[in-house]
Amino acid sequence: MSEESGILERAGRPGLAYRRLAGRGPTVVFLAGFGSDMSGEKASDLARFCAERGQAMLRFDYRGHGSSGGRFEEGTIGLWREDALDAIDALTDGPLVVVGSSMGGWIALLAALARPTRVAALVGIAPAPDFTELLIWSALPFEARERLLAEGQISLPNPYGPPQIITRALIEDGRAHLVLGGAIPIGVPVRLLHGREDRDVPWELSLRLLEQLESADVSLTLVKDGDHRLSRPADLALLRRTLAPLLG
Prior knowledge:
The chain is α/β, with parallel strands linked by helices. The protein has helices at residues 41-53, 77-91, 103-114, 131-136, 142-151, 168-174, 204-212, 233-243, and strands spanning 4-10, 13-21, 24-31, 55-60, 96-101, 119-125, 153-156, 164-167, 190-195, 218-223. It has a single domain, classed as Alpha/Beta hydrolase fold, catalytic domain (Rossmann fold, 3-Layer(aba) Sandwich), CATH 3.40.50.
């Protein structure tokens, strides 16, 4: 089974590059992290896994990411949420199992809240809900906050590549999409995977998410020596083992 590649054209909005596998449902939808794209190790491994099973799958790039149109610096949580919903609505049918990595875990929660009749289960890989507030803004020293507010953006070190541009719009828009302020009304099965050695998103954030989801069917698996990416062969095997029961 081979993937179909294409561009989801949208009036007045950047086109979204995607790859899609036809197959049986539920459709697996992969949501990448902040600055990541659909060609990463986890997305590619899941595509092979779904192809072997004859499982339908969709992966795509948010605007400003990978092969999609738009500029990364102009993106926000709300716009990337919009991208995910547009891709889901236009390119999938029936029930979905949404797999979100890092920021993609936050977008997955927002998608489940927006499409409760479509999302049948969630998998979060080092999920980072509310990271703009909890992990960026809260960690910035006063001088950096003042510069961000005055100049509209700042540059932060990025262990995975060039310095990361953080915009005032990203922070302010993120506040409109925070989910950890109270109970999260999602009732489907949720599986969370997190590395204890994650230096980017503390594993305690997954524990907080577990406690605040209303679903009674939520589990958290901690990988003792796992980092943020969870992309080693053993990590990928864990992801496949976690996902398989949710696909029936």
